[in-house]
Every structure is written in C-alpha cells, then in structure tokens.
Amino acid sequence: MRILVLGGDGYCGWPTALYLSDRGHEIGIFDSFIRRTWDHELGVQTLTDIRPLHQRIAKWKEVSGKEIAVFPGDLTRYDHIERVLEEFRPDAVVHYAEQRSAPYSMIDREHAVFTQYNNVIGTLNLLFGIRDIVPDCHLVKLGTMGEYGTPNIDIEEGFIEIEHKGRRDRLPFPKQPGSFYHLTKVHDTNNIFFACKIWKIRATDLNQGVVYGTVTEQTMRDPVLVNRFDYDEVFGTALNRFCVQAVAGIPLTVYGKGGQTRGFIDIRDTVRCIEIACDNPPAPGEFRVFNQFTEQFNVKDLAEKVRSAAKKLGIEAEVKHYENPRIEAEEHYYNAANTKLIDLGLEPHYLDESLLDSLVNIALENKNRIDPNVILPRVTWARGRT
Amino acid sequence: MRILVLGGDGYCGWPTALYLSDRGHEIGIFDSFIRRTWDHELGVQTLTDIRPLHQRIAKWKEVSGKEIAVFPGDLTRYDHIERVLEEFRPDAVVHYAEQRSAPYSMIDREHAVFTQYNNVIGTLNLLFGIRDIVPDCHLVKLGTMGEYGTPNIDIEEGFIEIEHKGRRDRLPFPKQPGSFYHLTKVHDTNNIFFACKIWKIRATDLNQGVVYGTVTEQTMRDPVLVNRFDYDEVFGTALNRFCVQAVAGIPLTVYGKGGQTRGFIDIRDTVRCIEIACDNPPAPGEFRVFNQFTEQFNVKDLAEKVRSAAKKLGIEAEVKHYENPRIEAEEHYYNAANTKLIDLGLEPHYLDESLLDSLVNIALENKNRIDPNVILPRVTWARGRT
User: Fold this and answer.
1) What is the tens place of the pLDDT at every residue in A137-183?
2) DSSP string, B178-220
3) Which residue of A has its CA nearest to B156?
4) Spans of all domains in chain B
5) Which of A346, B46, B81, B304 could form a disulfide with B228 if both were Cys (CB 3.0 to 4.6 A apart)?
6) Conformation bin of residue B27: beta by default, left when phi > 0, alpha when psi is -120 to 50
C-alpha cells in the first residue's frame, strides 16, 4: 500500500512511518518541520537527541534497505499538498500534521488563533485534495479522546444511540473539549464527517489517548533513528514527564487532586493501530471513529506507578499536588469504550514495570540534557502564559 | 444599554441596529462592508436599492434624532475590534459579522476556507477581546437552526438530557450541520461554550431559523433606510426568493421533493429576539442557547403559500421541483423546541397573507431590478459551482 504520513517527522509520525515501511508499505513523509521550530520558540528540546529528517531517512535505508520519500510542505498551503497527492498518489493518508499541544494553544490569543487556523484549514485543504486528486484514498485522521471531555455517562466510539421522548437516533457523541487545541479536533471531526457524507470520502477518525513511551522495534535499530521524548510543560505528556521529573529530582507534577482520568496508549500500539486502520479501510462515504487507547488511569495513580518504579532503581521520587493550571474536573466518572481496534486485531502492550524501567533508564542516560526550568506549568487556562 | 452590532450593515444587522436605537439604546455598528463586495463578486444585487451606511445613518438621525456610531473594521483583524471595544465599551455585543450563506461556502475550496477562517477566527478574536477589555459584556451570538441538521429525535435548545446505560448527563445537543458555513456555526458554538467555562464570559447563542421579510417599523420610515432583499441563489433565503420568482415568472425553486422542514422567523421578530436577549443577560460564565424561530414549514408548503398569495394579486406562479443541488434529507422527522424566547416575552408575527402580500408587492415595485439569471441554483454540494 502507498501511505503518506503527514507530520512524519514528529513524535507519533516518525515511528509510524518506520513501522509501516518495515511492514512493506511504500511510505512518503510530508512535514513542514514547524514542530522543531516550536522547540526553539519555547526554549526547550527533546530529552533524546533527535536527528534531522534527512539523516533519519538515510540511516533507515542503511539498516532496512527501504526508501522513504520526503516531501517538505505545509498543509495550510494547498499548492504544497496538491503537488504531493498528484505525485505520490497515496492509497491512505495518515494525518498527524497538526499542532497537538493543549498548553501551546492556551498561551495567548495568537497561539489559539494559530492552532485553530493551522489544524482546521490544513484538514480542509486535505479533504479538498483527496476529493479532487485521490478520491478513493483512505483518510486516517488522528483525533483525541480529549474531544469527549468527561461526561457523566459512558463514552462510546464516536456515535451514540439516543432515545428521547419516545424516538431514537444514532447521533454524533456530544463533545466537551477542554482547550483550544482539543476544540480543533472536534472542528475537524465535524468537517470530515460532512465531507464523507457529501463527497463519499472514506475516513477513519482515531480518537487517541495520551501516548507514552518513545521506543519502537524500528527506532531502536540505530541511535540515529531515535524518537522524540518531550518532557517540557507544553509538549510533554503525563507519564513521560513523570519519569524525567523522578530522575531530575523534581516532585512529580500532579495537577490539582489528580483524579483526572484519561485513556492511555503505548506508542508501540499507536503505530499498530494505524496499520490496522489502513488494512481495514471503511467503505466510500463512511466516517468511522475508533477510540485508540488501551487502559484508563488517573493522574495520581500514574504518578504513584512512576514513583514506585523509580524506587526500584534507587531513586526516591516525591509526588506533589500543584495548583491546577487547567480548568477541568479533578474528580469525575470516566468509562470509555475501546473495543473496535481490539476487534480488528490490536494486542495491547499494557503498562508494566519493564516499560516504566525503560523510560526511567532513558531519562537517566540523558540526564545531562534535562533542563529543570521547563518542567513546571506556566501556561494557565484562565490567563494564558504567566 | 450600550450595544455594539457587528455586521450592522447587513440584512439582519441593519434593522437590529435601528430597532435597538429606536428603543433608546446607544448603538455602535462595526462592519467591514465585505457583504457588499460579495454582491459584486457574484454579479448580483439586492432587490431593494440599499444605500451606503453613512447615508443610512444620517437619515436615521434626521428621522429619529438618534445617533449611531460607525466603526469600519474587520473582525479577523484583532487590532480593529480591540480599538472599538476599548472606545465604545459595550454592555452587549450582537455578533452578526459572519459569512452567512451555505451555497457561498460550497462554491469551491477557497470559499470554504474563507468562510471557516472568517467566521471561526473572527469569533475567537471577539472572545479574547471581551476577556481582556470588557469582561462583563454580554455576547449575543447568532447561530443557526441548521447546526442541528435533521435528527430523528426532537431538537432541544442547545442541550439535551441523555440517559445512557443507567447514567445521566445534560450534554450539548449532537450537531449535524449541512454545509461548510453551517459547520462554522457549530465550531463557534463549541469555542464560545469553552470560553464561557474558562473565562466566565456570559453568552447567548441564538440558533436562528430561516429569516423572511425585509421591512421593520424603523426601516419603513424613509426609503433611504430600506433593508436588503436578497433573491439570488447564493444569499437569498427560501420565502423571499419565492416571492421574487413568482413576480419574475420563474417556476418556484423547490429543491428535490421539498419535504425539507425548517424553522422560520419574521425579521420583525429577529430584532425583538435580540432585544429580549440583551434585556435578560445570563450570569457570568453561563452559555445559554435559544432556538430563534417561530414556526416550522416544509419548503413545498411554503412555495404553495406564495403561489396562492400571488394568485390573489393576479399572478399565476408555478411550483417546480428542481434537482436538489444540496445533499440533504428531503423527507424527514422535524420537531424543534422554541419556548425559551417566548417565555421571555416574544410575541411572534406568524406568517400570514398580509406579509406575503407585502413581500410580493415589494417584488412588484422593484420588478425592473430583478435579474432572472441569478435565481436558478448553480452551486452544488457534490462538485461546487458548475
């Protein structure tokens, strides 16, 4: 299959591109490299020493014998994506090319506007490109579990059967996203659902949980293939951040009461989920939603797991409840469905001690790269960056 | 009360500004005049000979003794709205400043992107402006009944109580908008709801039905105050269009089977609904949704009403079922709630013969301005403008 990975230089995109290439697919990467620019803007860098894409690609060819085509381009520029679709003619497009940080979108007006413009207009351009150039192409779009918020009812996969005043319908699941970033994913969902209806595009919307881990079978084949490991307050995600905090001797940053429950997924399952989606395309016109996570944890329990794993490696970590910079429920009901990917063959890597050990060890190996000044939260939902 | 009307030069904005001014409020109009540019772009003009805003304002002062402040500006330019909020310091902002035509948004990629950019980013700018400059100001935002689509259950006002697997919650009503324009209203709804939660902004979202009529008590005081009357396929709305078609001798344009049912409202009720919303502001942080329509009709029945009103004036009109340029259900269940505005004091003008007579007569008076070439649909949902 010919698969174009938009955002293929990023945290999820890079291991996805390698995995699919390793599995025998013909891969193209489309990326604007703006994610690397944001690190410069924020004055942060990944814990791991990631290399430029052209070096990564050359090394992958060396270790695997496989070529990955590279298309530098920005999805908000229609001429960029138009040319690539015409040249590469993908059977599937995996769309990671969005600004994916909630705190980044909450910094100030400019960052909120940028995030909504970048994500919504980029996806619109892609929809028109698919319609006009590769109408049979399967759009595999990354959404987020954060689209649902924390309703007091079970979360289903995209749609819900509602009975109301004696009548029934299957309707889009009501969304309550919690940041200007999460809102863009809801806007995208609505735009894509509509495009499927009117143009018979086939699309899979993967509402992904919080991703943890950094290594996959492919990225470990050579140090040059190393993946991102963000631990800063803006782009770092909970579990990865906690491991770095333990090693840096900073109390683990539980926001508020820590009863916030979310879906989580190992990055090795992320790449497999993408393959499952590509291997099982929906019918033309079908808009399909899968919840892409394997386990639910609350933040407090997650911090405890990291504390105990660190302890076995001789590190005494403290868990601390910080004032919550976000506006969100800190104790709530949460029960989300996630059977559709498992029904299609996903065999989850559940969070275990070996993974936690490996993450803490990566943090230890790169300890000299940890900047303790970028860890504590400075972006607040009420007033932006303070 | 000091009320700023964004889009106050438009079809609903202009009579709203006059009505509120007449009722003793201090009014400012913020408008970019881009709506007038779109007429030039499409090669159409309103049936009525609308005058430039500065003439309208001068005449209003002459007939009423009241001043309306004018602020030329574009909501997608933050510096424009920032300056006006600082200078005018409104108690309420009535936000009509969006691209409001579904067919316009479906012309091609550029028009879809423009519509989503203009509406979503403009509203984001307004939310930040309110947060930072006039935090107690009441945002009165125009949404549309089209946000809901045509679900097989009763439509409630913004939210719905859902019971699911033995648990309950009050959640945003699931939306199924039917064009890139309608999608922007859903995006706005989600963005505003979030801003109310995190910043304690007070907002009323008015999901308006299809507006008909053109004259209000204020616009009829002088010919210079005349309101828009769009009848072209892009900006014209059903009932107004049918009246012009009857006079022009063009078979009334019922799309498909004509069983499409929608909520409708007389423009004299639109302006009153805005006043009701302003007079009854929600609490800080409250996001309130009212469905702003007074009656439901299906398109076929509406065309029959116009045909019979025209007949009494000696005009033989034909009703014709054209191939539907849109992708929508043509026969469906539809039952939408609309009690909240009535509970607050709205006394509806229901559609009657005298209103139909008056519209047909306006069409007759302006018959020489009717361009028969701009009436039949050319923008299709499947392929854009053909």
Assistant:
1) 999 999 999 999 999 999 999 999 999 999 999 999 999 999 999 99
2) -SHHHHHHHHHHHHHHHHHHHH--EEEEEEE-EEE----TTGG
3) A164
4) 2-385
5) B46
6) beta
User: Which one is catalytic: A141, A185, A300, A340?
Assistant: A185
The catalytic residue among A19, A104, A181, A231 is A181
Angle subtended at Cα B175 by Cα B283 and Cα B323, rounded to the nearest 5 degrees: 135
In angstroms, the separation between the Cα of residue B385 and the nearest Cα of chain A is 14
Rounded to 5°, the CA angle A345-A221-A248 comes to: 95
Average pLDDT of every residue of chain B: 98
Cβ distance of B117 and A117 shorter than 8 Å: yes
Q: What pLDDT sits at residue B357?
A: 95
Chain A residues closer than 8 Å to B171 by CB: 151, 153, 174, 176
Low-confidence ranges of chain A (pLDDT < 50): none
Give chain A positions within 8 Å (CB) of B116.
120-121, 124, 191
Q: With left for phi above 0 and alpha for psi between -120 and 50, is residue A193 left, alpha or beta?
A: alpha
Do residues B116 and A121 lie in contact, with contact meaning Cβ atoms separated by under 8 Å? yes
Q: Tell me chain B's radius of gyration from C-alpha atoms.
A: 20
> In this predicted structure, what is the pLDDT of residue B2?
98
On the question of pLDDT at B373 being above 90, the answer is yes
Tokens read off for A266: 């190992």
Q: Report the run of H or E that residue A300 belongs to, with start and end.
A: helix A299-312
- Per the CB < 8 Å rule, is A167 touching B191? no
Taken in order A319, A324, A326, A330, is the CA torsion positive or negative? positive
Known active-site residue B185: yes
CA distance A5 to A84: 11
Say which residues have a Cβ less than 8 Å from residue B132's Cβ, sequence separation at least 6.
none
- Asked if the model's pLDDT at residue B298 lies above 90, the reply is yes
B144 catalytic, yes or no? yes
| pLDDT, average across residues B95-114 | 98
Q: What is the pLDDT of residues B29-75, one digit of tens each?
A: 999 999 999 999 999 999 999 999 999 999 999 999 999 999 999 99
- Do A238 and A299 touch, CB atoms closer than 8 A? yes
B165 → closest Cβ in A153, A178, A194: A153
Average pLDDT for residues B67-96, to the nearest whole number? 98
**Complex ipTM value:** 0.98
Please judge whether A120 and B124 are an interchain contact, meaning their C-beta atoms are less than 8 angstroms apart: no
Measured between alpha carbons, how far is B381 from A198 in angstroms, rounded to an integer? 7
* Numbers of helices and strands, H then E, in chain A: 13, 16
Beta carbons of B382 and A199 less than 8 Å apart: yes
Q: Which stretches within A108-179 are classed as H helix?
A: 109-116, 122-133
Give the per-residue pLDDT at B386: 82
Cα separation values, A229 from A49, A276, A363, Å: 9, 25, 9
Domain A2-385 has CATH 3.40.50.720: yes
Residue A386 is predicted with a pLDDT of: 82
- Which residue is catalytic, options A144, A184, A204, A219? A144
**Average pLDDT of the residues in B197-214:** 98
**Are the C-beta atoms of residues B101 and B35 closer than 8 Å to each other?**
no
